[in-house]
Backbone:
């Protein structure tokens, strides 16, 4: 089972990207736009890789 401790850091990073990159988008727009850009099924992507893909979508360099 995955640790629940992964959830808060992921959500904090997602919040930061959303606020800085597209604060006028609704949540559905954010998810639809980013997830539709993936070259594989997002169902199987772990949170650390997911946030990297969000950063790639917005052209944000990894910290």
Residues:
């Amino acid at each position: 089972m995955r640790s629940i401790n992964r959830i808060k850091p992921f959500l904090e990073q997602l919040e930061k990207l959303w606020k800085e990159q597209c604060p006028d988008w609704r949540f559905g727009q954010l998810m639809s736009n980013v997830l539709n850009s993936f070259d594989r099924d997002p169902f199987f992507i772990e949170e650390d890789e997911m946030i990297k893909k969000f950063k790639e979508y917005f052209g944000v360099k990894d910290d």
